[in-house]
Amino acid sequence: MASVTLTNLVKSYGGVVHAVRDVSFAIEDGEFFGLLGPSGSGKTSVLRMLAGLEQPTSGSILFDGVPVEDKTPQQRNIAMVFEQNALYPHMTARQNISYPLKIAGMPKPQIAAAVEDVAQMLNIAHLIDRRASQMSGGQQQRVAIARALVRRPNLLCLDEPIAHLDTLLRARLRGELKRLQRSLGTTSVIVTHDPIEAMTMTDRLALMREGQLQQVGTPDEIHNKPVNAFVAQFFGLHSMNLFPIDHVSDGAALSGQFGGETVTLPAIVRDMISRDARLLVGARPSGVDVRRAGAGDAPEGMRVSGKVYVSEQLGDALLVTVQIGSGTVQALVPHDRDFAIDEPVDVVIDANAMFFFDPDTQETRRFASRLAVPTAALVQAAALSV
Amino acid sequence: MASPVTIRVSSRPKDSAATVRHNRAERRATLMLLGPALTFLGLLSIWPFAYLLYASFTSYQLAIPIPTEWVGLGNFRRIFASSRFWSSLSITLIFALVAVPLQIALGMGLALLLNGLSRGREIYASLFLIPMMLAPIVVGFAWNLFLNPIYGPLNALLRGMGFQPPAWAQSPDWALPTIVLVDIWQWTPFVMVVLLAGLRSIPNRIFEAARVDGSNRWQTFVHIVLPMLIPYMTVAFVLRFIDSFKVFDVVYILTKGGPGTSTQNLAYYTYDMGFGRFDFGLAGALSIVQLVLLTVGTMSILAMVRRRGRATGSELPPVKIERVAA
């Protein structure tokens, strides 16, 4: 077990490609930490530097306060689970799992006992004499996890370990990995591009973009208190809707332009309007309602007319995409509603579910006052729809 | 042991008249397209082989105008009774079993070196391939000059350094090692290319996984790289083993089988019987013996490798196709 501190970590390739730019964060002992970001965000580079597979260009990495930049993966006592196909193909599962212990010179009876233990833990005892080619992708990853855990590492590095499995298996392994991590208490870092994986498995996570750290926090903090529009849009079951609104004017009613259409604005936006009459509003699909055109008595909020682009039944909810001029909005509404394609509708964004971002810097200026909490059923439906 | 997989296929329904006509036209087209190739194959390969087989059972003498007689297994009996055959067979085997493993060891070393290069791998690999692209006769002449005991640059250099260099191809003790040396010089690059392809096929994450597991370079090589290269090593070994039975040009140029019979391998012995003594019956029988030896040798190497593969379970379950009535 170890705590890990990264300070001003930089990785550039050939002095031109800056994969990681000045990243600092700390991972606590026993924590399940996530590194999340779109592809090319530098998350894998950070993990590989933690693991000792790559040297940082500058910056420091401390394990329990001790610098490890010059140490090998073995000296750091880290273990790693790769994306896929990193089992030694000519060895059985047993030989694969035993390998790190064997070359460390552990006596055979102890190896056998350790392998037995970890195989039980990962439910692979029945596969122990099979080769990689005789196992499914999920089974191979279980063996790879067993090989990583058998050494009782200080730090477990997981590089998209379940990204290549099918949806149901992925959902199951998510839970298993989380339980396993909790029961062993091994400090673990998982790299993923999937917000659901990061959200469901980790204690805290770092969200990266183009080599830069965007935000570090618990999934709840990042979801409900995103520091900027990118984080808000990237993190969540569904992307947050962003409404760049311009030509805001305070005439008979407060209004502006979105996608070339006129938007009616609630009074709360008044102190958010920037000097050149612009606004950047965000709202998660669960905070957006879609009603038939002309239906009255809407709650206080932002209103705009559009037409249905497509509606997708998720079983427990309906995901409606509405075309508003040149822009689109997604809304999660009760599953028993029904919309036809191109049907004219009114979109109402609950004033309490509105986030405000700076139109220039994209930084968050105000969080939503009422946090949109999707029901358990909605979460599940959304998770499976990804 | 994997249980057999049974695939049931229904047999074809009875062909209609139209299908029969169609099939016949197709067969005719097949014959017309394959015909020329088959004719050439027959003329250039099958007929000479059949003739060789026939000759090996006769007293066919090219130079002496005596009638050719059927001698049955006479030629084979003469071969197995001749001490020259047994000595040339042992020279051939010694040559194969010394040169080929050395080529594999050296080829592995070169492949590992080249694989470790981050740039220029292709350039070095093509430079290493030059010996392999030369005709063996050219190689023979080049080495003949290079190793000439009196005028050759190698011995001049060695003498200059104060050594007493051997006469290489002209010395009874050094002639066979010299032939082995030339064969290694020419064919190690081939083994290198095969093993380099094998190394390149191992994904990088396997090496990274090994590093993370704490495996040092040597352990990674012994426990991971070497076992993964066994199929490539088998291919290289079998091809080089077969080729080493056929080495003739270099022997012909460098030693003519001598001094004495110290470098007379089966190929040179066969040549000597056929074109030295014009005893085509005996030469034919010798060729057949070599063919049988090579076939048996190659098959047993492959069977050995296959048995090893089966013991380690890397084999797929046998597929049994069962035809059932529709």
Short key terms for the protein model shown above:
heterodimer; A: 386 residues; alpha+beta; Rossmann fold; OB fold (Dihydrolipoamide Acetyltransferase, E2P); 2 domains; six-stranded antiparallel β-sheet; 21 strands; B: mainly alpha; MetI-like fold; two-stranded parallel ribbon; 13 helices; flat; disordered C terminus
Task: Please give a structural write-up.
The complex is a heterodimer of chains A (386) and B (326). By secondary structure, chain A is α+β, with helices and mostly antiparallel strands. Chain A folds into 2 domains: 4-226, Rossmann fold, CATH 3.40.50; 234-385, Nucleic acid-binding proteins (OB fold (Dihydrolipoamide Acetyltransferase, E2P)). Chain A has helices spanning 43-51, 73-76, 93-103, 108-121, 137-149, 167-184, 195-201, 219-224, 229-234, 376-385, and strands spanning 4-13, 17-27, 32-36, 58-63, 66-67, 78-81, 155-159, 187-192, 204-209, 212-217, 241-250, 254-258, 261-264, 279-283, 288-292, 301-313, 317-324, 327-334, 344-350, 355-357, 364-366. A 6-stranded mixed β-sheet of chain A has the order 6-7-8-3-9-10, sandwiched between helices. A 6-stranded antiparallel β-sheet of chain A has the order 13-12-11-14-20-21. A 5-stranded antiparallel β-sheet of chain A has the order 15-19-16-17-18. In chain A, α6 (167-184) links the parallel β7 (155-159) and β8. In chain A, α3 crosses α4, α3 (93-103) runs parallel beside α5 (137-149) and α4 (108-121) crosses α5 (137-149). Chain B starts with a strand and ends with a strand. In chain B, α2 (74-81) packs across α13 (280-311) and α8 (175-200) packs across α10 (217-245). Chains A and B meet through β6 and α3 of A and α9 and α10 of B.
